[in-house]
Amino acid sequence: MAPNGSEADDLRAGRRKAARYVVPVTVVGVAAATIGLVPALAASGDPDLPKITAQQLIEKIAKSDVEQLSGTVKISTDLGLPNLGGLESGLASGAMGGGDGSSADPASKLPELASGTHTLRVAADGEDRQKVSLIESAAEYSLIHNGEDVWGYDSKSNEVFHGTAADSGRKHRDEVPATPKDFADEALKSVDDTTSVKVDGTAQVAGRDAYRLVIEPKHASGTTVGAISIAVDAKTGLPLKFTLTPASGGAAVVDAGFTRIDFARPAASTFDFTPPKGAKVTEEKDAATHAGQGAERKAGPGRQFHEPGAQEKGLAEKGPEIIGKGWNSIAVFDTGTKGGIPSSAGKGEFGGFLDSLGDQVSGTFGKGTVFSTRLVNALITDNGKVYVGAVTKDTLVKAAGAGK
Questions:
Q1: Do residues 174 and 256 both lie within one domain?
Q2: Phi/psi of residue 327, nearest 5 degrees
Q3: How far is residue 53's CA from residue 370's CA, in Å, rounded to a whole number?
Q4: Which one of 225, 242, 335, 346 is least enclosed by Cβ atoms within 10 Å?
Q5: Do residue 392 and residue 306 come from a single domain?
Q6: Are residues 190 and 329 in the same domain?
Q7: Which strand (E) or helix (H) includes residue 89?
Q8: Which DSSP letter does residue 102 get?
Q9: 238 and 96 in contact (C-beta within 8 Å)?
Q10: How many angstroms separate the CA atoms of 67 and 64, rounded?
């Protein structure tokens, strides 16, 4: 729930241009008067820090003005997804990139962060220079934003992706959550009167003293979210660690934290990039200007430039309908396509594969299939509607029945 009145103005005024790591600026809309904060104090734990209320800590995050840093982030994700081998990257590349795609396109790397443990090196120098490197076995993938240029480089395939920061055609495809702050900003946007927020002790993260901010649904019924813990740097207000545990218990769904951090300005050369000799470079132009163009051209010995064709036109883009409240919110999309997902009856092996991943359900809405993870569930009905939320399977079925 967004803040009101002068308090909202104060929070917005206090919010500086924080390091975004190729993530567009978002405003943390939080105020104590509107979210029912639990007035717990950080009075115990190690290290020993001055007392602070949850309201004060949230304001500290909102006013954080860190613009220069470098460090290492460890991200572990356990959504409970099946092991699909290379299928995820193929689907993402085909759906998001079109054509033959490029392994250097940031869209091809998103599925990799959806499971397992990964190490990232990050660096930032204001709004115009950021770098994120995904360290892989005997290889590295880097995403670099330097001024107007955005570069992606996959050392394993020796492929390069090049676009511009103002390229509206990508529609946020370069948003790769890379730091605890990225995750924390999204979590804080969910804080409203259905939420309990408290400061629960202190911690040390990457050698820094930090407060622990805990966000929990007040009423757990229906949601898959158990709790969110954010370690906030006591000096700068920068989130250093983010942990999301599911209501079902067990390992964290997402655990992202700095293992090393330095607030000194990175060397300017950190953000320099020149495509290596022999690399295949994929150029992405403004879709409105270059729609339908997919020509390949040569530019120097061994270098190929490829302009992917415009993505196929699908349904008109429109926002979903939101039903429910707070942690039980569900996004509803009407695809306009009847028949649900392809079934194994007459739709080939792929349809049968999809059937095996989901649970068949029925209700007053008719029939459908629920696809589940440990956090997010999605119901695709045979009448063309899709219900998605961090809610249980039963909650989705009831919502579809009420909406029909």
A1: yes
A2: -70, -15
A3: 41
A4: 346
A5: no
A6: no
A7: helix 87-92
A8: -
A9: no
A10: 9
Query: What one-letter code names the amino acid at 278?
Result: G
Tokens at 224, concatenated: 């898959």
Are residues 213 and 160 part of one domain?
yes
Residue with tokens 């920068």: 238
- Do 361 and 233 fall into the same domain? no
- Give me 18's structure tokens: 């924080």
Confidence band of 79 (pLDDT split at 50, 70, 90): confident
pTM: 0.74
Dist. CA 250–CA 126, nearest whole Å: 38
How many residues are there in the chain? 404
pLDDT digits (tens, 9 = 90+) for 239-287: 999 999 999 999 999 999 999 999 999 999 999 999 999 999 998 763 3
CA–CA distance, 195 with 207 (Å, rounded to integer) = 30
| 154-169 CB burial, b ≥16 within 10 A, e <16 | bbeeebbbbbbbebeb
Full residue range of the structural domain in which residue 42 is found: 1-313
Assigned token pair, 345: 């009856």
Burial grade of 250 (CB within 10 A; 0-12, 13-18, 19 or more)? exposed
- Bridge partners of 72, per DSSP, are 121, 260
What is the Cα gyration radius of the chain?
A: 22
Residue listed under structure tokens 């132009």? 285
Residue 349 has pLDDT above 80, yes or no: no
User: Rounded to an integer, what distance in angstroms lies between the CA atom of residue 381 and that of residue 109?
Assistant: 29
Q: Using CA atoms, how far apart are residues 191 and 34, in angstroms rounded to an integer?
A: 9
Q: What 3-state class would DSSP assign to 4?
A: coil
Residue type for position 180: P
| Total domains present in the chain | 2
CATH code at position 192 = 2.50.20.10
- Which of 33-42, 78-87, 146-155, 373-382 is predicted with the least confidence, judged by mean pLDDT? 33-42
Q: Domain check: are 309 and 336 in the same one?
A: no
